[in-house]
TrEMBL record, chain A:
GO terms for molecular function: ATP binding; phosphorelay sensor kinase activity. This is Sensor protein. Its EC number is 2.7.13.3. The lineage of its organism: Bacteria, Pseudomonadati, Pseudomonadota, Gammaproteobacteria, Pseudomonadales. It catalyses: ATP + protein L-histidine = ADP + protein N-phospho-L-histidine. It is found in: Cell inner membrane. Residues 242-455 form the Histidine kinase domain. It comes from the Bacteria. The chain crosses the membrane at residues 12-32, 159-179. It comes from Pseudomonas linyingensis. Residues 181-234 form the HAMP domain.
TrEMBL record, chain B:
GO terms for cellular component: cytosol; protein-DNA complex. Keywords: DNA-binding, Phosphoprotein, Transcription, Transcription regulation, Two-component regulatory system. Residues 123-221 bind DNA. SMART domains: REC, Trans_reg_C. GO terms for biological process: regulation of DNA-templated transcription. The keyword Transmembrane does not apply. This is Heavy metal response regulator. One of its GO terms (molecular function) is phosphorelay response regulator activity. CDD domains: REC_OmpR_CusR-like, trans_reg_C. Pfam families: Response_reg, Trans_reg_C. SUPFAM superfamilies: CheY-like. InterPro entries: CheY-like_superfamily, CusR-like, OmpR/PhoB-type_DNA-bd, Sig_transdc_resp-reg_receiver, WalR-like, WH-like_DNA-bd_sf. NCBIfam families: cztR_silR_copR.
Length: 456, 223
């Protein structure tokens, strides 16, 4: 389980808060640093100014003693509780001392110019010192300032910054949440609309025009999916209907014929005829169920083919032998012009070609040739079965390979495949990753199997 | 020859009993797996026809029990022709299978094959009435006259002669002569039979190839 919330609005709010904290934190850090530096600089300037004034006082006074007698001169000047001042002679004698925190006199290196440093005493302090010659002796002037007040002030400032940061984060989270909820409203509306689409309402579509641009593509994709689903669904229900209808015909023959025969006593011959006729209908039903099962299996996505190298000419030769008698009865000549080898499932390929040949023999004009030819074209192998005869009307061509589709519904021939032969051909080709095509005009009808080449 | 039919579908069991009985077999019927098991333990059979979907003890379980001690040939019947089902049955020790709906001629042919025991004898010369076929010399004569047949006609006649008296279904003929193992919804077999008849039957008074309506073809001398 993840701590990351599932709701998109909560996620966005958390991200808003994170961004807020980062931004506020960075700004606060920068401001704090600048303030600290500024205060330190001002304190240093004040210390240096104080040293300067002390030196002026010393120069103006007759002697250091006189200065010691008039402490108000510098006491006024110092005033504050956190200011420090020492004047120390080279011999170590403290001449003047203002030291409210009672610090020890600091030991400082002597240099030619003014120097600054942090004193690491009991209480942290900032010191500036200067060595001067006065009335023939060396004096060290030391000015200082306790840092306690400054750290207190900065600490308070830091606390305020943290509080502001926390408040900012909470505010960013809440605002972010509100904004996300508001911003994601189109998504909720889309969901509500999508929810309304079920099996009974597959024709409904998501509104693409009113959508925000990010969702428009999603809606368009969903709409395309819906269109495909609707087509598939329609095909499926049409198919069930067709199936029921196709089974109804033989069943009604069976029932009618049987009932009619049973109404009166008949001769043995009549009964035999009835049973034989029934048997034919049963076989038709059994064949249809076999074909349906075959189609259902080949159309399963996990169905696979066992490909092996098939010699096309040999295979077609076998089929020609099989159909030879039928062709001769109709005075048709079978012409085998297929050649080459093909990676395919031999049993399935034979079945597909047999169905095409049976179809061609059924529709060929008497006395004409029926030819099976193969050719390489556009990186694929085309195996076509061609026959002369009345052309198929253009409106039938796209649906020729659909199940139960007959160009002339009234002309269901007793020996025909129940309208499934070509559907089986198509599904066999789909199994092989190929397709089917049909051309029909005054020059005859050609049904083709298209095998893509160069794939395993 | 005693045959046990284990089948829970009453109508199927009934017509199997009648049909096999007419063909001269002694048939016992068990309507569920446990009855079947009981019968197998009590008496001996030459063949067991086993439906896979049975109440109580199903066909697979019964088959396993049978194979633990008996070598009786088993033909199983199934309504599911998924490859896995067939493979499972054969792996468990069944000798053959049929997928429902099957043709009765087909069943009878399988039963005869299973009961024949041992490999079929290689016959090289066939003779029915005055029709003779010599497999080695690829010669066919009727009433002493030489008949010229094409390769497929010869193969067809050979098939009919080697199964003399048995009704062969069109699907079986197509698979044996042309290796077409699927229903091609054509009358190819009828056409081939018609052409064969034209050569070996039509010119002679005694017809040998007979159509059995709804079942197929049989070659035999009929009174």
């Amino acid at each position: 389980m993840s701590l990351w919330p599932r709701a998109l609005s909560l996620r966005l709010a958390l991200l808003f808060a994170l961004v807020g904290v980062l931004l506020l934190g960075a700004i606060g850090f920068y401001l704090y640093q600048s303030l600290e530096r500024e205060i330190a600089w001002r304190d240093d300037q004040a210390l240096l100014g104080r040293l300067e004034r002390m030196r002026t006082l010393l120069d103006d006074s007759a002697s250091i003693e006189a200065l010691r007698q008039r402490p108000q001169l510098y006491a006024n000047m110092l005033g504050n509780r956190d200011s420090l001042l020492w004047i120390v002679s080279d011999s170590g004698q403290v001449l003047i001392e203002i030291n409210p925190a009672a610090l020890a006199v600091p030991q400082l290196p002597r240099g030619p110019a003014v120097q600054l440093r942090d004193a690491l005493a009991a209480e942290p302090a900032r010191l500036a010192w200067l060595h001067v010659e006065h009335e023939g002796r060396g004096l060290t002037l030391i000015a200082g300032k306790l840092l306690a007040e400054r750290s207190q002030m900065l600490a308070a400032y830091r606390l305020k910054l943290w509080l502001a940061l926390a408040a900012g984060a909470v505010l960013a989270f809440l605002l972010g949440w509100l904004v996300s909820l508001r911003g994601l409203r189109p998504v909720r509306e889309l969901a509500a609309r999508a929810q309304a689409i079920d099996v009974q309402h597959l024709h409904l579509r998501l509104d693409e025009v009113q959508q925000v641009s990010e969702l428009r593509r999603l809606s368009a994709a969903l709409n395309q999916m819906l269109t495909r689903l609707e087509e598939g669904f329609a095909q499926l229900s049409r198919f069930s209907e067709d199936l029921a209808h196709e089974m109804r015909t033989p069943l009604s023959n069976l029932m009618g014929h049987t009932q009619q025969t049973l109404r009166h006593p008949r001769s043995v011959e009549d009964y035999q005829n009835l049973l034989a006729s029934n048997q034919e209908e049963y076989e038709r039903l059994a064949r249809m169920i076999d074909s349906m099962l075959f189609l259902a299996r080949t159309e399963q996505p996990q169905a696979s083919v066992n490909r092996e190298a098939v010699d096309l000419h040999g295979l077609v030769e076998q089929l020609c032998e099989y159909f030879e008698g039928m062709a001769e009865e109709r005075e048709l000549q079978l012409v085998n012009r297929a050649e080459g080898t093909l990676q395919a499932d031999p049993g399935l390929l034979r079945r597909a070609l047999a169905n095409l040949l049976a179809n061609a023999l059924r529709h060929a004009a008497p006395g004409s040739p029926v030819s099976i030819a193969s050719q390489l074209c556009d990186g694929r192998l085309e195996v076509g079965v061609h026959n002369l005869g009345e052309p198929i009307a253009a409106e039938h061509l796209p649906r020729l390979f659909e199940r139960f589709y007959r160009c002339d519904p009234s002309r269901a021939q007793p020996g025909d495949s129940g309208g499934l032969g070509l559907a089986i051909v198509r599904s066999i080709m789909q199994l092989h990753g190929g397709s089917v095509r049909v051309e029909s005009d005054a020059h005859g009808t050609r049904l083709m199997l298209l095998f893509p080449l160069g794939r395993p | 020859m005693r045959i046990l039919v284990v089948e829970d579908e009453l109508k199927t069991a009934d017509y199997l009993r009648k049909g096999l009985g007419e063909s001269g077999y002694l048939v016992e019927v068990a309507l569920n797996g446990l009855d079947g098991l009981h019968l197998i333990q009590e008496s001996e059979f030459d063949l067991i026809i086993l439906d896979v979907m049975l109440p109580g003890l199903d066909g697979w379980q019964l088959l396993q029990v049978i194979r633990r001690k008996l070598q009786t040939p088993v033909l199983f019947l199934t309504a599911r022709d998924a490859v896995e089902d067939r493979v499972k049955g054969l792996e468990l020790g069944a000798d053959d299978y049929l997928v429902k709906p099957f043709s009765y001629a087909e069943l009878l042919a399988r039963v005869r094959t299973l009961l024949r025991r041992g490999p079929p004898r290689e016959v090289e010369q066939f003779r029915v009435a005055d029709l003779e076929l010599d497999l080695l010399r690829r010669r066919v004569t009727r009433a002493g006259e030489r008949v010229n047949l094409t390769n497929k006609e010869f193969a067809l006649l050979h098939l009919l002669l080697s199964r003399e008296g048995e009704v062969l279904s069109r699907a079986y003929i197509a698979s044996q002569v042309w290796q077409m193992n699927f229903d091609s919804d054509t009358n190819v077999v009828d056409v081939a039979i018609r052409r064969l008849r034209a050569k070996i039957d039509d010119p002679y008074p005694c017809k040998l190839i007979h159509t059995v309506r709804g079942m197929g073809y049989v070659l035999e001398v009929q009174p």
